[in-house]
């Protein structure tokens, strides 16, 4: 048996399972050895061997350090090894328990969650360090306190109710999100699990719980949720189409506007679909090729103008930008796109171009018209100047004709001169009328009467050319305000034109009708809708001939002053121009077209009926 | 060889004074009117002398050009009408500055005055003179 001195030099733990101290001889260092060993707190079982009970009594004060004692007087044969084995086993158990307890305590003390035990009345019976530091600022000890001492009434009551329910039902409450409002008003968000606390017999003696402060997490979550809703609002209300696609081109996010651009009705129709569900094969392939390029190269594209046709056939112009979408590691996982509807701008641009072109043309026309005006004015001046000398020639010729009896050739010469003068006079009249300011005297008159008068006046002209005249004049026609002599001139001009294209005979029809303007575009130029409204009462006059009709150029230019297909001297080309301005003076509209029923021309005149 | 008709004025031929700045015109009017034998015509190309000539010639009627460089038709008419010797002589204005309608009619009335539109022919000329003189009787 080594002495205490020797004992100190050995590694008890390492080398021994049990130490048997022989106390039978009452050695001084026996007590010290027991103290020393027990201080070591190790797994080595400590067994004392005494002579009898009386001797054991003497070591009462250290008996609790022993794992067992053996009384030599009572030792039965073969008992010793069993006793030692038992002692070792007990010692190990004890040691384990101790460890377990230390571990548990250390867990309780170090865990950042608050852990608590409560009795059936929800009074704290044990709390861990964390709980004490967080909730125990105002209370040096939480033991015996309740939630009502720590939190606002509202929260405390809810927690109390939960705990009472657990005690009643024995059912735990797991992971409940709780807002802990303190009496001073500040609050924490915690995730709490509470379970029933049972005694050895399985009776519920209270509750225990653990709650984790997730205030920061919750804050982060809320921020995230807020950002998410903000983003959603922006996306939904943006004046652009916004979409997100994955690598395979499936739509992940799409806003209402883009849904419309795709020709769909609602978001669910689009999510998970690809371009191929909305576009023709070739079109879808073209767009998705661009998408692939963006995702592979990682290069975004900006402001690409894209033309599309909506399912209803209307145009859609989009200004699209696409950016690769990346995950946290920077890997491309899809793309984000934004499309602006440019259709209106595009159409406006196109209209503008058209307008500019029309303006260019109009400018030329204006220049042309201005030229003509000047020519007209000049012509008027010239006409007056020409009149005097012409009159001298005319009177001279007339005098000579009256004075001379022969020879015959001389008389013929004089007659030719007089004819030439008459022709010149005629041209001067026309020029003058074209350029003179139009004085109009409007009086009530019947257009039918005027037509009949002119027809009668020109009867022999028609007969000469073997033209049959059909008068189809409606009796429904009321008198209207008109300048009779100007109106006469209108029909004289029209009939002369008709005669000149029917020199070898034909038929002329003059028709009048009382009508109402039915609808726009009724086979007439837009002028009609400019002058009249739908439903306006009008008088329609039609002059139809069976002449040559008009070629393309004539249809365009017939009304232009000085446009004439007649040989010089035959016509000045002012007839229709003057005619139209007279009709416009009467607030009417006039057209000249080819007939559709047979060859020939058709003049139509609409005059406002008197209201 | 040109043969001319013979014409001498009638006994009761009317005296016509033609005032126009264009001598060719007055000559033509004179020749045409006198050719009928019914008129004796005096030409005047300087409108300033209208009164003196009228006073001396004593016309039954005056043909007066409206547009003249010296004194225009309106002025001349006014001065003639303001003097007792000439105030009763009827005047027909002759003008080139008329519209086509007026031209077509040839002779017409406007604002109480008589007008002849240039170009004018012999028949219209004679017709106008006769009409005006007839209405005076
Ligand atoms: N009824 C018609 N059929 C075929 N062409 C026509 C008819 N009326 C007019 N045109 C065409 O339109 C042109 C212009 O007609 P417009 O009456 O203005 O002049 P014009 O008859 O030639 O001369 P004028 O000044 O003597 O009338 C004619 O030269 C002719 O080519
Ligand atoms: Mg014509």
Structure summarized in a few sentences:
The complex is a heterodimer of chains A (611) and B (137). With 611 residues, chain A is of the alpha+beta class.
Structure commentary:
Chain A is α+β, with helices and mostly antiparallel strands. Chain A contains 19 helices and 21 strands. In chain A, helix 12 (343-403) packs antiparallel against helix 13 (408-435) and helix 14 packs across helix 16. Chain B is globular and about 45 Å long. In chain B, helix 3 links the parallel strand 4 and strand 5. Helix content of chain B is 38%, strand content 24%. Chain B is of the alpha/beta class. Chain B has a 6-stranded mixed sheet, sandwiched between helices. The A-B interface holds A 384, 387-392, 394-396, 398-399, 402-407, 410, 421, 425, 429-430, 432-433, 436, 439, 485 and B 1-5, 7, 22, 24-25, 28-29, 31-32, 35, 96-97, 99-101, 103-104, 118-122. Magnesium ion binds next to helix 16 of chain A.
Overall spatial form of chain B: globular
Q: Please compute the radius of gyration of chain A using only Cα atoms.
A: 60 Å
CATH fold title of chain B:
Rossmann fold
Helix content of chain A: 40-55%
- What is the CATH architecture assignment of chain B? 3-Layer(aba) Sandwich
Mean pLDDT of chain B: 85
Largest interface: A-B, 28 and 26 residues
What are the main properties of this structure?
heterodimer; A: 611 residues; alpha+beta; Rossmann fold; Beta-Lactamase; five-stranded antiparallel β-sheet; 19 helices; 46% helix; 24% strand; B: 137 residues; alpha/beta; six-stranded mixed β-sheet; 7 strands; 38% helix; binds adenosine-5'-triphosphate; binds magnesium ion
